[in-house]
Design goal:
There is one protein chain. The chain is of the alpha+beta class and 310 residues long. It is built from eight helices and ten strands. The chain is 26% helix and 24% strand. Strands 1, 2, 3, 4, 5, 6, 7, 8, 9 and 10 form a ten-stranded antiparallel sheet that branches. Strand 6 and strand 7 form a beta hairpin.
Amino acid sequence: MPSSSAEQTLAVQVVDSMERMSGKYPGHRRSSARGACFRAMFTPTGAAAALTTAAHLQEQPVPATVRFSNSEGNPHTPDTAAVTRGMATRFHLPDGGDTDLIALTVARFVASTPQEFLELTEALRPDPVTQRPDLDQVYAFVEAHPHLAEAAAQQPPIPVSYATAAYWAIHAFIWVDADGARQAVRYRWEPAAGRIDLTARDAATRTDHYLTDELHQRLEQAPVAFNLRIQLAEPDDPTHNPTIVWPDQRKEITAGRLEITAPADDQDLRDTPAFNPTRVTTGIQLSDDPILAFRAHAYAESHLRRSHNQ
């Protein structure tokens, strides 16, 4: 395992590379720079209670804060761009603590180690003249990492609404029950409205902020709901590699239902803290996924620069 000092050094290198890839925008996140926060309530079904002692997955509803965003580090990237969307959820627990779940509109990550991710961001650095990535560098990266070809080729959808996209948490986590038994799981938010995407032609007719505007309008009519689907691993399913999805045939349960009710009243306050996929709670542990563990260091470095308006 790399030392904490080595991970911190790599985190600085990754965030520097992300700035070279997307540009530097002081005061903004280095990824998912533009987003909007919403109030929500999560009601567990109880189906997970036998597998984990996590407080928000038992029987009592808990309030939540949800942030929707696109994945770009450039806060001016329009919603019509064919980029990944994010759904970060912070569950506010009965004991006053929080736990976060960060999910994307793709089922797998684009790198299996932090070093691979650094190399990918370097390959995607825009050419200073064309302001676009050099495709030769991108192809060379994929050729040098053939196990990432499928992940690199995935095309994120352009959804009709933030409310009509599915969001995967990418990483495996370990649930622990009252007796200490462990179960590897993966999370997915399924929209109650169903998955509905735009064609590229239809997307071209939308405004730059259509996803946020549409969700505000939708919430004026009714709450927006998502079901939290949990995929249960079998013993041979890998937990260390977020570029590999588990077979569709794996057992799934519905752990709860999230209802988003309104925009957060205090957008600046809600948007300032960093969501963190390693902020887990009793009954949930991190898997052996090195990308998952590393994200805490990268997020901390990004937040440090953002808090200093860098």
